[in-house]
Amino acid sequence: MTEVPKTHPRRDSLVLRERLVGGFKDGVVAPQGLIAHGRGEAMYYLLGERTSKEARIAARAAAAALLRSERPVISVNGNVAALAPRELVVLAKTVGARIEISLFHRSDERVSRIQAVLESHGATDVLGFLPDERIPGLEGTRGLCSSAGIHSADVVLVALEDGDRTEALIRMGKKVVAIDLNPLSRTARTADVTVVDEVTRAFPLISGYAEEMSGDEDALDNGLAKYDREENLGAVMKTIASNLGLGD
Ligand code: PTJ
């Protein structure tokens, strides 16, 4: 991998790129994942590359939804495994969620490579290699899932997810928590809770709130009550407009 100079003003962004490229070379990230990352980078740039107040409000609601869940599942794709494997394993342990590898561009080889990455960061009982169920409405290998994971989950956390998949999960009656830098994406607009932030920041943010609120029913109620998706995404769009000099 290319060494990123410690003093480079855009070091954080370059480090994420290197993780993606490394993941691609290791067979973890799909080629399409590199393009998806570029789209995310553009949105992140427009958002000022920081965690907004809206992201914090959404992350609190996300943590509350996961803690209230009976059967939470974190769905993992190639990009997430390359960018934030440690952070996602920590979140899964904090909220007691199962981890399922669920790929848009599925191959058994990539699933097992992603599983190895997650296990090297402490994940156990990772689902996804032997799917035995389907997500209705999704054709081909895209629709595969596990009966012990996504199929029977009540809350599914998806990150960098394709809009079709998010909509299909909602049609199945799942509560969907999404992490997506694009407030205009179908995933962002249809998930029950959308955290508009970069995934490596969003996971620790949600974990932190989960630790803080665990066992405090009033805090969980409050976290959920303070979140309104349309209002939240509207405020995010205003930040983008303002950063573009298009103030109201
Ligand atoms: O590993 P696979 O086979 O499951 O494929 C994964 C990709 C990412 C290729 C697949 O899910 C895909 O095509 O995703 P989309 O439809 O391009 O959606 C990705 C969304 O994530 C876009 O809205 C991006 O803006 C957003 N995004 C990209 N990078 C980040 C991000 N959101 C948060 N953090 C990021 N680093």
Written overview of the protein:
With 248 residues, the chain is α/β, with parallel strands linked by helices. Helices cover 52% and strands 10% of the residues. Ligand PTJ binds at residues 30, 32-33, 36-37, 39-40, 43, 77-79, 83, 103-105, 160-162, 179-182, 185, 198-199. Residues 30, 32-33, 36-37, 39-40, 43, 77-79, 83, 103-105, 160-162, 179-182, 185, 198-199 line the site of ligand PTJ.
In short:
This protein has eleven helices and seven strands.
- Count of DSSP H/I helices: 11
Q: How much helix is in the residues?
A: 40-55%
Main sheet strand line-up: 2-1-5-6-7
What sort of overall outline do the alpha carbons produce when their principal axes are compared? globular
Main β sheet profile: 5 strands, parallel
Strand content: 5-15%
Under CATH, the topology can be stated as: Rossmann fold
Helix and strand pattern: HHHEHHEHEEEHEHEHHH
* Structure ligands: ligand PTJ
Using only C-alpha atoms, the radius of gyration works out to 17 Å
Cα-to-Cα separation, first versus last residue: 44 Å
Mean pLDDT: 96
CATH class reads: Alpha Beta
Low-confidence stretches: none
Task: Name the CATH superfamily assignment.
Answer: Phosphopantoate/pantothenate synthetase
For the secondary structure, the number of strands is: 7
Judged by helices, strands and strand pairing, the structural class is alpha/beta
